[in-house]
Specification:
This protein has one domain. It has 2 helices and 4 strands, in the order H-H-E-E-E-E. It has helices spanning 2-5, 8-59; strands at 68-73, 76-86, 91-101, 119-129. It has a 4-stranded antiparallel sheet, covered by helices on one side.
Length: 140
């Protein structure tokens, strides 16, 4: 009877170690995915701020707005492009595109589509009147 029980403690210890190893591997993968998601969120937030800044400049009618520039924010280089296209009488379409090298390797990166070259992009569209604001205002 004693010989049937020999070695069972070793097998139980090996199985417990295997289960613990699988659990630790899962926790490590979860932590890495959370860090990757946090980095992607930070990059997308910076891209939104840069797009908003360019859109505000375009919609304000300032003639000195750059049509293309490059900005580095928190170690990530962002390329910003702005196009203003006349659309009909008195209306301009404004398009702002921000691109950056994304750290996310999967194609399912939410609202930031990724090209095969690893660049993520954000594009905003709006329209603005090309007629000056003072037109139609009468003086007293």
């Amino acid at each position: 009877m004693k010989s049937a029980q020999q070695g069972m403690a070793l097998i139980e210890a090996l199985l417990a170690s295997a289960v613990l190893g699988i659990g630790l591997l899962g926790a490590t993968q979860l932590t890495l995915k959370a860090l990757q998601t946090a980095t992607d969120t930070r990059q997308r937030h910076a891209a939104h701020l840069l797009a908003q800044e360019a859109m505000d400049c375009a919609l304000s009618g300032t003639p000195t707005c750059p049509s293309q520039d490059s900005v580095q924010v928190q170690g990530t280089r962002y390329s910003r492009q702005m196009r203003v296209v006349p659309h009909g009488v008195g209306l301009n379409d404004v398009e702002v595109t921000v691109q950056w090298a994304s750290s996310v390797t999967s194609a399912s990166s939410g609202s930031s589509p990724q090209s095969p070259s690893g660049l993520a992009s954000l594009t905003w569209h709006s329209s603005v009147s090309s007629v000056p604001r003072w037109v139609g205002v009468s003086s007293p």
